[in-house]
Write a structure and sequence with these properties.
single chain, mainly alpha, Multidrug-efflux Transporter Regulator, Chain: A, Domain 2, 59% helix
């Protein structure tokens, strides 16, 4: 946010790749937290070693979701990972249901 109350942002698409530092800044967390998400299997960066890691916009969305779940529910990373998996499964099922309803099934 700027001094005048204007919110600034970056438009991301599926081609966008973020470095570890960029993802950390976007999530407003320390890089160690992002590394812990990778260690837990919540995020799967592209690239061989940490210096070459690149994260997709999906990784950004997942990291932000985990951060909210941890903040709101006070769970550890394993609990947040489980909650994230369940939330994504519900979203997928809701999408399939909407498709069936659109077809009149």
């Amino acid at each position: 946010m700027t001094e005048m109350g204007v919110i600034q942002g970056i438009v991301l698409d599926e081609r966008t790749r973020l470095s570890l530092a960029e993802l950390s800044r976007a999530c407003r967390v320390h890089a160690d937290w992002i590394i812990a998400l990778v260690d837990e299997g919540i995020l799967q960066p592209e690239g061989g070693d940490m210096a070459q890691w690149r994260f997709t916009s999906i990784c950004l969305r997942r990291a932000q979701c985990v951060r909210r779940v941890q903040r709101d529910l006070g769970v550890n990373l394993a609990g947040a990972a489980l909650a994230l998996d369940l939330l994504e499964e519900v979203a997928e099922l809701q999408g399939k249901l909407a498709q069936y309803e659109a077809r009149g099934l």
